[in-house]
Amino acid sequence: MSDLRAARRLATAVVAVGLATAVGLAAHGHVDLADLAMLYLVAIAAAAVAGRGSALVAAALAVAAFNYCFIPPRFTLQVADARHLITFVVMFGAGLTISTLMTRLRRREAEAREANLRARGEELRSALLSAVSHDLRTPLAVITGAATTLRDSRGELSPSVRRELEDTLVDEASRLERVLGNLLEMSRVETGLVPAREEVPVEELVGVALERAAATLGSRPVTIAVPPDLTVSVDPLLFAQVLGNLLDNAVRHGAPPIEIVARRRGDQIELDVADHGPGVPAAARPHVFDRFFRASAAPGVGLGLAVVRGIVTAHGGAVELVPGAGGTCVRITLPAPPVSAPVALGPAAPAGHAQPAAALPGRAT
Amino acid sequence: MTAAAPVLVVEDDAQMRRFLRSSLGAHGFEVREAATLGEASAAVRAHPPELVLLDLGLPDGDGLDLLRDLRMTSRIPVIILSARGREAEKVTALDAGADDYLTKPFGIGELLARIRVARRHVSGAGGPAAPEVMGAGPFRVDRGRHEVTVDGGPVHLTPIEFELLAVLVQHAGRVLTHRQLLRHVWGPEAVGETHYLRVHMATLRRKLERDPARPQWLVTEPGVGYRLRDASPATD
């Protein structure tokens, strides 16, 4: 690999000097020798872009070519006039200087890039810290408040107040759990997630997500239009999280009814989760899938949709906001699984429960 | 409704033990505690419990070892307590003979429901043979006549669907892993064919559920398996 790089550097130097020589030969007679020397300096500078070695080789080649082609006696390597030796030294010196400057410039650039990366990492960490401390502390503060009120009240709370505090405890605890879940999922996505794919009916994924989100959804109507035989090749656990986050978003930022629609379009599966709320403001649309981005003042770390994008991307899919939808409509597009042979439905019933295992037809394992 | 029953809580976190002790105590259970694998083994030998709540991550070893030891000599119900994201661990424990699992954090209602189901399966089914006629929720399965009814009305099922429903009804309320279901319905050579199971579960839901995308009875336990929801009232 380093051989290849060295060869490329050499080639750059040869080409640059060759070009300068060709131009010089064409212009010979119309221009001064000093102008030709300048031309070679340009060639050295051009070669220096490819690196220090290239600049040095170009400088040596330039001196040789200049001498051979233009310095009398021409087309020999002899030098009649000692003045020209000074020109050679200057050319070579210029090549050396340019290449040194180039190297230094590159090092600075790399340092700046690294510093920039570090700064971004720092920024990310502080954003994470502030988001986490806010979104974990707030429910924790509510829990502490409600729990101590319950503990310290000596039977002086009315049953309705007690009930309210108890509900608060349960709700806030599940909010904590949700934030924590997304944080963990986000860190898994960041560190390179390899989904454990299985071919799963979309209907089953939707069922799991609705079951998990039951408490959040409450009595809000959800309409589902999913073809029963539609399957996707995904990690079912990760997709429970994806759909759960989308439903959670629809509840917190949108308005019912919530719609879940899936369809096959060519060799792609589209899965839409839509609500009938105010939608995402135009200015916020490009950023909704970014980490720590919040489109509104509503509580949330701004991780939910970033986790959605991370997981979907890890599956080779894409996620977008569908423009022109009434409320918010998030569309997930996934490659459709290869068409598999229909699953064998099995033979006649097993004789009875004494031998429950039915033979698996047409399968050699 | 619950008589005093010694429950062994094997859990290294003291606060978690405190919660389980007070909550289960309030519901009439006699609770014994073990914080390590060593304490748990000693407790099992000294006073065989009626039921074990087992946290798998213990400071001095793997809770799975305790489970395997227990299973060599007894059918005491074991319910695994485990964190989300550890589905593989839960599946291993279930396939090794655990009766059910709960994902932390869980509510006391869920815990009592699991305990109720686990105890019922021990006291009810005296042996491995399932009764000829079984019922759970709106379903009745008659193995002799090979008939299934839902709320009294007959439903036609394919042999595979019948077998799948029968095993879920027989273990009503309990989770069954993909492997357990595949082994039972298709045979041991099919335990890896989860796709078969999903497809047939989908057709079964279409025949038995009012809204197959929101199943009331045939519940998916993501990453683990399926469960026929327990029909008995959720009160204790």
Could you please describe the fold and organization of this structure?
The complex is a heterodimer of chains A (365) and B (236). Chain A is α+β, with helices and mostly antiparallel strands and 365 residues long. Among the domains of chain A are: 2-112, no CATH class; 198-335, Histidine kinase-like ATPase, C-terminal domain (Heat Shock Protein 90, 2-Layer Sandwich). Chain A has helices at residues 2-27, 33-48, 52-70, 83-152, 159-190, 202-212, 214-217, 236-253, 304-314; strands spanning 198-201, 222-225, 231-234, 258-265, 268-274, 318-321, 329-335. In chain A, the strands form 2 sheets. In chain A, strands 2-4-5-7-6 form a 5-stranded mixed sheet. A two-stranded antiparallel sheet of chain A has the order 1-3. In chain A, helix 5 packs parallel to helix 9. Chain A is elongated. The two termini of chain A are 45 Å apart. Chain B is an alpha/beta fold and 236 residues long. Chain B has 2 domains: 6-124, 3-Layer(aba) Sandwich (Rossmann fold), CATH 3.40.50; 133-228, Winged helix-like DNA-binding domain superfamily/Winged helix DNA-binding domain (Arc Repressor Mutant, subunit A, Orthogonal Bundle), CATH 1.10.10.10. Chain B contains 8 helices and 14 strands. In chain B, the strands form 4 sheets. Chain B has a 5-stranded parallel sheet with strand order 2-1-3-6-7, sandwiched between helices. Chain B has a 4-stranded antiparallel sheet with strand order 8-9-10-11, with helices on one face. Chain B has a 3-stranded antiparallel sheet with strand order 12-14-13. In chain B, helix 6 packs across helix 8 (194-208). The mean pLDDT of chain B is 89. The interface between A and B is large, with 43 and 44 residues.
Task: Give a summary of the structure in a few sentences.
Chain A is α+β, with helices and mostly antiparallel strands. In chain A, 57% of the residues lie in helices and 10% in strands.
